[in-house]
Design a protein that fits this description.
Elements (H helix, E strand, L loop, with lengths): L1 E4 L4 H5 L6 E10 L2 H13 L11 E3 L24 H9 L4 E4 L5 H9 L3 E4 L5 H4 L3 E8 L8 E15 L13
Parallel strand pairs: 1-2, 2-3, 3-4, 4-5
Antiparallel strand pairs: 2-7, 5-7, 6-7
Helix pairs in contact: 3-4
Amino acid sequence: MKNITLPLTEKLIENLHVGDEVLLTGKIYTARDQAHARLQKAIKSGKGLPLDLKGQIIYYCGPTNTPKGKVIGSCGPTTSSRMDAFTEDLLKIGLIGMIGKGIRSQQVLKAIKRYKAIYFLTYAGCGALLSKYVKTKKIAAYPDLGPEAIYRLEVIDFPLIVGIDSKGNDIFKQKGF
């Protein structure tokens, strides 16, 4: 198990390999389909983004309503391939990592390698458990999207597995997976 405190550096990313288990601490952003569509539209229009994603990590997650006395509701990962059409544009502007579940397209795999980024997996079906690692939650952009708004989360020891490393190695293509 590797303990990582954000921000990620190029050297740190180079030393992470497919299958490595990681406990991540720091600030990450959530974003799902609708937020990605708006981010891409802002990039293509040249109007600028509502937040700086350079060197940041996006967690493909739309948290549920927050129960009384909690920081966040259930916050499990959504299927990452739904964001594949938007990924390269975000990597081009400096996004460095993504967290989600499931396989990615060949195009995304090549883009991760090209931009020396990283794709982490987290535990699907465990959203209530994952919420225990979130210490703060704040809306960062697009509040009208409700659970699909972009939130900034502060996480401590958030459990991850390297799914695609910066060299383009893919856990789903490993022998026996």
